[in-house]
């Protein structure tokens, strides 16, 4: 079991901006949770805490009963994989193959085990044909899938995705939706793409000014036009007249 427990989380940026204001939330193993809100609501700041990119200034985060601290940061990162909003932040090697190999290799995986793991990930995500290409020469959609591959090759138990469809064309968006649906792990998706959340998440949390203002069944929360408008959002396209 890899439950997530956030208790009274608070976070200020260096300029004094209160990004997270006393948030408490629990996410159970196997849940697929969407997080939405207007710009500056605190979505990315919240999920960047979940794998230790940020350490709590106030309150606690526990992953599977392990409290996140600087000492436990590396252990938690082995459990929680984070796909950044900008794929270029995760692709820095000379080839796709090397980028996907980087993570497990640095965790001590070697030899045939390493090769098998990397090649399975390439095949599972349909990236074999571009394995020798430099990421800089890939399309936005290809980069997005490569970024996912660099995280999924680490076999995380919890996957956090920050705006995963922000740079995708309709075909790649559909392919990503199918991939996310197949993953049998805990999934947390931050997105302005409410249709993607509708299709991939059973539960949705709405943030505003660093606070949770709604938390419930996705199709109930995302059908509440007044709630969405009050928090800088619009109905999913499928519900708009």
How would you portray this structure in words?
There is one protein chain. With 241 residues, the chain is α/β, with parallel strands linked by helices. It has a domain at 87-155. Helix content is 33%, strand content 24%. It contains nine helices and ten strands. The chain has helices at 43-49, 73-77, 96-106, 111-124, 140-152, 170-182, 194-200, 218-221, 225-230, and strands at 4-12, 18-27, 32-36, 58-63, 66-67, 80-83, 158-162, 186-190, 203-208, 211-217. Strands 6-7-8-3-9-10 form a six-stranded mixed beta sheet, sandwiched between helices. A hairpin with a 2-residue loop joins strand 4 (58-63) and strand 5. The N and C termini lie far apart (42 Å).
């Amino acid at each position: 079991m890899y439950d997530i427990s956030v208790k009274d989380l608070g976070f200020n940026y260096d300029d004094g901006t209160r990004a997270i204001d006393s948030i408490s939330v629990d996410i159970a193993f196997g849940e697929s949770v969407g997080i939405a809100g207007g710009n500056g609501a605190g979505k990315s700041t919240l999920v960047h805490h979940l794998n230790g990119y940020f350490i709590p200034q106030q309150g606690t985060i526990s992953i599977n009963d392990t409290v996140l601290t600087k000492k436990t940061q590396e252990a938690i990162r082995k459990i929680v994989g984070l796909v950044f909003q900008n794929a270029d932040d995760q692709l820095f090697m000379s080839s796709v193959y090397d980028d996907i190999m980087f993570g497990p290799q640095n965790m001590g995986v070697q030899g045939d085990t390493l090769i098998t793991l990397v090649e399975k990930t390439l095949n599972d995500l349909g990236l074999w044909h571009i394995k020798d290409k430099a990421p800089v020469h890939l399309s936005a959609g290809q980069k997005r899938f490569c970024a996912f591959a660099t995280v999924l090759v680490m076999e995380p138990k919890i996957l956090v995705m920050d705006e995963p469809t922000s740079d995708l064309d309709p075909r790649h968006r559909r392919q990503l939706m199918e991939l996310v649906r197949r993953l049998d792990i805990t999934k947390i998706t931050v997105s302005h793409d409410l249709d993607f959340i509708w299709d991939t998440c059973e539960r949705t949390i709405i943030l505003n000014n660093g606070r949770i203002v709604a938390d419930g069944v996705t199709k109930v929360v995302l059908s509440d036009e007044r709630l969405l408008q009050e928090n800088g959002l619009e109905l999913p396209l499928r519900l708009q007249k």
